[in-house]
Amino acid sequence: LWRRRRSRKALSAFLESAIKRNKPVALLLRTGERLEGIVHWADMGALLLELSDGTGELVVQRHIVDDWELA
């Protein structure tokens, strides 16, 4: 059985804090890809990430986020 290392509530709290403090985040996806940038909004299903490499904004579905940290 596949399980995440950290809870969805922990992700919600992390995103809320990053948005309030305007801090860049790093998201590790289930695919192994790492995305870095500023979170502009987040809800229970997705988040909007302004990518730090300047390529634009990306809506990321929360279910694909496996791990996270401040960038």
- Helix percent reads 10-25%
Specify the structural class.
alpha+beta
| Mean pLDDT metric | 93
Distance between the termini: 30 Å
- What is the string of SSEs from the N terminus onward? HEEEEE
Could you give a quick summary of the protein structure above?
This protein is of the alpha+beta class and 71 residues long.
Walkthrough of the structure:
It is a single chain. The protein is an alpha+beta fold and 71 residues long. Helix content is 20%, strand content 45%. It has a five-stranded antiparallel sheet. The protein is globular. The model has no long low-confidence stretch (mean pLDDT 93).
List the helices and strands and how they pair.
Layout: H1 8-21, E1 24-29, E2 34-42, E3 46-51, E4 57-61, E5 65-70
Antiparallel strand pairs: 1-2, 1-5, 2-3, 3-4
Features:
single chain; 71 residues; alpha+beta; five-stranded antiparallel sheet; 1 helix; 5 strands; 20% helix; globular
